[in-house]
Amino acid sequence: MVLEVFQWQESESADLPSRVDGREMERRLYGISESVRTMANLLGIDILAAAEAKLAANEQRYPVALSRGSSRKYTELTGADE
Question: What is the three-state SS of the chain?
């Protein structure tokens, strides 16, 4: 598991903890990416197209003018003061 490396880390730093080998993390991430790629191929999903669609949907839900610097949910942004 990849996120377990950061699970008990006290700081908010995204740096890899010293107890973790960077090469091991590379292997783990490669395994995950290969699993996702294989699953997408089996299901006929274009990963890049899916990512672009998700980004476009997020841009609609969270317009920059209304959401920059805010943690409000997209349903609370409509009609919000800028």
Answer: CCCHHHHCCCCCCCCCCCCCCHHHHHHHHHHHHHHHHHHHHHHCCCHHHHHHHHHHHHHHHCCHHHHCCCCCCHHHCCCCCC
Per-residue pLDDT reduced to its tens digit, 40-73:
999 999 999 999 999 999 888 877 777 777 777 7
User: Which amino acid, 22?
Assistant: G
Q: How far apart are alpha carbons 43 and 35 in whole angstroms?
A: 12
Sign of the alpha-carbon dihedral angle for 8, 10, 14, 15: negative
Asked whether 43 and 49 are in contact (CB, 8 A), the reply is no
Share of the chain above pLDDT 90, in %: 34
> Distance between CA 64 and CA 34 in Å, rounded?
33
21 SS3 class: coil
